Amino acid sequence: MITNILTIAGTDCTGGAGIQADIKAISANGSYAMSVITAVVAQNTQGVQKIQMMPLEMIRAQIDSVFSDVQVDAVKIGMLGNAQVTECVAQALAKYQPSKVVLDPVMVAKSGDRLLDADSVAALRDVLLPQVGLITPNLPEAADLLGTAEATSREQMIEQAQRLQVPTFLKGGHLAGSEQSPDLLCAEGELSWFEGERINTKNSHGTGCTLSAAIATFWGQGDSLYTACDKAKQYLTGALSKADTLNVGQGHGPVHHFYKYY
């Protein structure tokens, strides 16, 4: 039976990140993708030009439409944009109680444009985090959530992952001075490192969206959380390694979500 994965996030009209990247990652890895749009984002490989948040009643209506009709095997949450949307999604999770929820705390786009209002970080941390099964921050996002300096070593990554107090897949791609890109899973009292060589490409737009959607996909398919993270990292590594075969935009291009099929 093909599993159904729901992504709740903002859009990317050039297809590299957000809802579009999630749908590609879910589909490429064998599940059926569904979506709830929280914001329509005019962005390209060079930056974000405009953001239009969806009305709260429309976000609620989309979520209700999905859960009232379709079995949801896992949920991935991406861009929420503000505290009101964060609380709206948290209320929906409390209502429908999906068993597997992956939160990618999208705060800043690859271009540096901020996608989550700084005043909304508290709502994300205090209202939504307790309801999710895994959070997938990068180092700047983890530091933002904790109100501390960005980790610069594996030891600090461990300390910050533990301080988040929810199952965490902490992405080490920003770790300076390393040819490796180590990620850390801190869950169920255990620490697991996922090693990988840093891939030299500027075309890394949407990596966080893609990874978290892939984790939700494999987890929803019945894999353990550890195995889902392992498979998702392998998938992202492959998508990054083939990113330069695409010709999308003049800035930070997207990863190649369907590299296995070309």
TrEMBL record:
Coiled coil: none annotated. It comes from the Bacteria. Its EC number is 2.7.1.49. Pathway: Cofactor biosynthesis; thiamine diphosphate biosynthesis. Keywords: ATP-binding, Kinase, Nucleotide-binding, Transferase. The keyword Cell membrane does not apply. InterPro entries: HMP/HMP-P_kinase_dom, PM/HMP-P_kinase-1, Ribokinase-like. One of its GO terms (cellular component) is cytosol. The keyword Kinase applies. Residues 12-256 form the Pyridoxamine kinase/Phosphomethylpyrimidine kinase domain. SUPFAM superfamilies: Ribokinase-like (SSF53613). GO terms for biological process: thiamine biosynthetic process; thiamine diphosphate biosynthetic process. It is an enzyme of class 2 (transferase). GO terms for molecular function: ATP binding; hydroxymethylpyrimidine kinase activity; phosphomethylpyrimidine kinase activity. Pfam families: Phos_pyr_kin (PF08543). This is hydroxymethylpyrimidine kinase. It comes from Psychrobacter piechaudii.
